[in-house]
Amino acid sequence: MAKTRAATKAAGVKKSGGSDKLIAAAKRDALAARKKKLSTLGALIRRRLTTVVESFYDIGVALTEVLKSKLYAAGGHASLEAWLEAEGLLSFSQAKKLIAIVKSVPREQALAVGQERAYALIALSSATPEPDSAAELIAHGVVDGQAAAKAPVRAIEAAAKVERAKAPKTAAAKAKAKADAAVEKTVRAMLRASGLKAMAVSVGRDEVRVVVSRRQVEKALEG
Fold first, then answer.
1. Residues 39 and 81 in one domain
2. Model pLDDT, residue 1
3. Are both 186 and 134 inside the same structural domain?
4. Which domain does 211 fall in, by range?
5. How many structural domains compose the chain?
6. What Cα–Cα distance (Å) separates residue 192 from each residue in 88, 214, 222?
7. Is the separation of the CB atoms in 86 and 77 below 8 Å?
């Protein structure tokens, strides 16, 4: 009887040891796969850096995957920044810009306006109280009297600086600015749907004033 119990215990230990080995093997395989993925993405980034003007979006996509999946850890690094530094790929600040572009701007738009303008428009959309996105600015926005998609980067950066300087400081002021911006956006959308483009939209406490060119109105009447 004692021998039977001993044999059963030994079999249990053997079975447990086999399970542990399987788990350890699975972990090794998973780590190896992550290391391979990290190496593949690192190689892609290195290749694309030679043609960064055309390939910046692909680099941003790769960086986004490394960051979201924490693939840098598979290479023994504590962060994306540490991995980039160890690999000598690109600066962390530049990486953050490319990741922001991928997050905020569709590929076709980003490639059309270029890396620097796309990032500048992201900064501008963040600085303004209007609930618009960089993608919306590229499609419909105006900066310094010209289409945002073609505006000089310096003009966009200057506009963002102005918006940050006049940003409301109190919670009540921020809430009012957000509400006014939502009203303005809705009015502009209504006008676009009617084939009109507002030269100015002023949101007051009890009224909203819209300025459109006389030519636009005359053209609408002719139609």
1. yes
2. 52
3. no
4. 169-223
5. 3
6. 48, 16, 18
7. yes
Which whole-number Å values give the CA distances from 153 to 32, 67, 157, 192, in the listed order?
Answer: 43, 28, 6, 26
pLDDT of 169 above 80: no
Q: Which residue has the tokens 């991928």?
A: 102
Rounded Cα distance between 176 and 163, Å, is: 16
Same domain, 215 and 134: no
Kindly state whether residues 80 and 7 are assigned to the same domain. Answer: yes
One-letter identity of residue 219: K
80 with 29, same domain: the answer is yes
Angle, alpha carbons 15-21-25 (nearest 5°): 145
How do residues 80-130 score in pLDDT, each as one tens digit?
999 999 999 999 999 999 999 999 999 999 999 999 999 999 999 999 877
Residue 152 confidence (pLDDT) above 90:
yes
- Same domain? For 160 and 184 the reply is no
| Of 113, 112, 110, 130, residue with least CA distance to 177 | 130
User: Does residue 190 share a domain with residue 132?
Assistant: no
Tell me if 54 sits within 8 A of 94, measured CB to CB.
no
